[in-house]
Amino acid sequence: MAKVCELLGSLSEMEETAARIYSKAALAVKDDTGLRELLEGLALEELEHKSLLSDFGVFISSSGVECVLSLDEDAVNRTRDYLSVAEKRIDAGRLTNGNLIDCIATTESSEWNREFLKVVDWFKLSSRSFIPGIARVQQHKRSVERFLVSRPGFERFLVGMKSLSAAWVEKLLVVDDDESVAVSVAALLADEGRVDIASDGEEALEKIGSGYYAAIVSDYSMPLMSGMELLDRAEERFPGISRRFLFFTSDEEMVDVFRDRGVRALHKRASPAELSAEVAAILSRAAPAR
Question: At the N or C end, where does the chain have fewer CB atoms within 10 A?
Answer without folding.
Answer: C
